[in-house]
Specification:
The structure is a homodimer of 480-residue chains. Chain A is mostly helical. Chain A folds into three domains: 152 residues, MgtE N-terminal domain-like (MgtE N-terminal fold); 120 residues, CBS-domain (Roll); 171 residues, Orthogonal Bundle (Tetracycline Repressor, domain 2). Helix content of chain A is 71%, strand content 5%. In chain A, the strands form two sheets. The first copy, chain A, has a three-stranded mixed beta sheet. The longest helix of chain A has 34 residues. The interface between A and B is large, with 120 and 120 residues.
């Protein structure tokens, strides 16, 4: 009995994912066992034990938050994932789809019929349907449009029209508006008539007859104000106003800096269109960071952990191909010096050191610069200062590590001149890495490209080919 | 006149950083001009134009949010930074220090006297002082402790005692508590007696006489409830409860999944200690993502853009040294095969291709796995599935890219057997990359280490040395 209690206790400390996996395994174990038995017995066992197991699984699922269900589905292999997905309550389908990663969302949608998909959207707001839209079949979207009342149809059309990384794509339409010439008491009475307030309502938007945004009344202000106070006396007119065409990153920066919970979105004429809330911003920030990490590693996009092999190959081939081209170039640079290498084969063993450290150092510089560019902290003035600083850092590093590799070389090959060539090559390649580590992202930026994308591959290409060239030509000049 | 208007318009569209930089430059330009003139004239000019310029700069600064000031200080070279820092209002000093990055904060604190520092803390909450504490001189902290009332002194001591990445470090003490046996009307009256509510108050915490947390009353619920309703009838007992010793990352995951604005923190006995708010969580998420990116690039920590050269060298040397060691090892692997390379010098030109693509592919795998580990989506069961999948991806990639490099080799060196060796080496190195790309992060995790830290360096070391070894031994066996 004591043991059973203990087990219960441990089980309740398991994460939702672990609980589901445990139940799933139990279910599948029994199924496997049943399949071993003869047909007659089969149905009998299934009807009792398995029904019980399924019921337990179902009960567990029913009490989970849609975000947790999405997380569990992402962690399960396809077969198990679809088994569980079939058991999720229809009213949660939409929310789970919203929370799942793009790749996993696709596998779930593929498994659903049109009717199920349309039903799933019925529990969603228009801005949420817009988020799902790119993954939904056209005929489903047509049906969804048909079924919406006119205002919502317009909202959906608007929400779908904003580009992915714009404020418009983060916006929702759940705004509560009030007039400035009423008293707090009236506002309180108005709110009390509602069943509930939209999530993340930390402020009410004060608009005039033409829906022009005049100010915001913070809920916290409403609560501490005298009921007789006029809205116009308590509202604040200084507020963050976003535009739907603003870059989403700017909105995220504003939320981070000014500690916002929600912010208004207005059109160019000052008319209130909607709002952005902090939960959407957090999702955006996470996704941005994730994409950056994935791109750095040469992955096109987030991958379903259990994606079929060919799908993963597709996601990864682009950067491998780019890398192959730069490797071919580096190989040809070495090819030019084959005569030198034939005469002094130690060069072949030493050259990867020069290239490797150059790449590492260049990536350090690039990361610093890309980060500062993202925070908008570099102008033309400071660019020169930064180049000077990075050159300085590389000069110091070059002297230190150049000396180390020089001594290493001398120790192994007993040649002082070979050691000196290593030292010189190291210094020069680090200087090259510093210069281009600053110039590559700044140039990408000037050209209107994302400096984070591909600059790491480029600097590595430069320090590889450049490093081989510098080292092998120095060796050819001074040693042969 | 029209032009002047235009200029005004453009100026107002500048970012705060650009406006400050513009004013600063104007100020320094005049100063430079004045220095060129003779002494007599000097004082006259300075007293008029410069006072005016300084006043404009001051006016601009005074209207900026502390977060914006911190951002501007980060973007300015040290000299300008300290000039502006001296002009920031004393009551903003503490907030600016909080918002600035660690490296920049240090430069600012070094510039301040003890009295200024103590004054700066007077405008801060105890949890904020705890955040600054590691950067403050001991004697300042002693004085601050002395000056605090006893409860706050205890709070500060508690806040300082939590490790950096724990929920305790994110916690603040601004909780509003109510009792469950009162009516909404009483709660509303209680709130109205306060001057203002703490930032991010989206819920009131319901506690009993012993400060045991019984539930939470959402502000949104309070607003829509009938004034006669009892708190116990409107409060919700299902809520997120954090513990101060929880890993901060878990709290961040909860905020992201459940779209929280604030969450309670309780001790093991259920006593309410404080709360965590979404703005702190956003800062934490950003910092985490940043640190990950910096670590990947081999930087120990965030760097002041304008740090002195030697400080930057210190921040970067560790990973360069690690890299150097792995490069030395790779170099010695090649060294073993010097005889083979002497006989067939093409090997020297071709070997970096095998190593490079292996490293790229291995890093793709590592990134996938590290990400899944961070989301807690891998258990022992799925580990085998993942290894199988990654091996599959590598086999396909190896066949594709192996064939490409084989043909490239044949085209250049007219040797079919050399091409075949390239193909085989590529396939084997990609398989090695896949296997270790899964095993390295899983092993680090098993050993209780952070799988994100250093696994990229390790996989590159393996695919470099391994790639050279595979290729050169195949060549030695089949070609020589």
């Amino acid at each position: 009995m004591a043991e059973a209690n203990n087990k219960d206790k441990n089980e309740s400390q398991l994460t939702p994912l672990q609980q589901i996996t445990y139940q799933l395994r139990k279910y599948k174990l029994v199924e496997g066992f049943v399949n071993l038995q003869d047909q007659a017995n089969h149905e009998l066992t299934e009807s009792s034990v398995q029904k019980q197991n399924l019921a337990e699984l179902q009960a567990l699922l029913d009490q989970l938050h849609p975000a947790d269900i999405a997380h569990i589905l992402e962690a399960l292999p396809l077969e198990d994932r679809l088994l569980i997905w079939g058991m999720v309550k229809a009213e949660h389908d939409g929310d789970v789809l919203l929370e799942a990663s793009d790749a996993v969302r696709e596998t779930l949608i593929t498994d659903m019929g049109s009717h199920e998909l349309i039903a799933a959207t019925e529990y969603l707001d228009t801005d949420e349907i817009a988020d799902l839209a790119p993954n939904l079949p056209q005929e489903v979207m047509d049906d969804v449009f048909q079924s919406l009342p006119i205002t919502e149809r317009e909202q959906l059309r608007a929400a779908m029209s904003y580009p992915e990384d714009s404020v418009g794509a983060l916006m929702d339409f759940d705004v509560l508006t009030i007039r400035e010439d009423v008293r707090m008491e009236v506002v309180l009475r108005y709110l009390r008539r509602l069943d509930e307030l939209p999530d993340h309502t930390d402020q009410l938007f004060v608009v005039d007859r033409n829906e022009q945004l005049k100010g915001v009344l913070l809920i916290n202000k409403l609560l501490v104000s005298d009921p007789d106070t006029l809205v116009s006396d308590a509202m604040s007119e200084e507020m963050i106003k976003l535009h739907p065409d603003d870059v989403a990153k700017h909105a995220a920066n504003a939320f981070e800096r000014y500690d916002l919970v929600s912010a208004s979105v207005i059109d160019i004429n000052g008319k209130l269109l909607g709002r952005v809330t902090v939960n959407t911003v957090i999702d955006f920030i996470r996704e941005e960071a994730e994409n950056e990490a994935l791109n750095l590693a040469g992955l096109k996009e987030e991958e379903d952990l259990f994606a079929p092999v060919l799908k993963s190959v597709k996601n990864r081939w682009v950067w491998l191909a780019v890398n192959l081209v730069t490797a071919f170039i580096a190989s040809r640079v070495i090819g030019v010096f084959e005569d030198s290498i034939e005469k002094l084969v130690a060069l072949a063993a030493l050259m990867p050191i020069i290239a490797g450290i150059g790449g590492n150092s260049g990536n350090q510089t690039i990361t610093m610069i890309v980060r500062a560019l993202a925070l908008e902290q570099i102008d033309n003035n400071s660019a020169w200062k930064l180049i000077a600083k990075e050159i300085g850092v590389s000069a110091v590093n070059g002297l230190i590590w150049g000396t180390v590799v020089g001594l290493f070389t001398y120790a192994i090959y007993q040649s002082a001149s070979l050691g000196l060539v290593m030292t010189m090559a190291m210094i020069l390649n680090l200087l090259l890495a510093a210069l281009l580590g600053v110039l590559i992202p700044l140039t990408l930026r000037k050209l209107g490209r994302d400096p984070a994308l591909g600059s790491s591959v480029m600097i590595t290409a430069v320090t590889d080919s450049g490093g081989f060239f510098i080292f092998l030509s120095l060796a050819t000049i001074f040693l042969l």
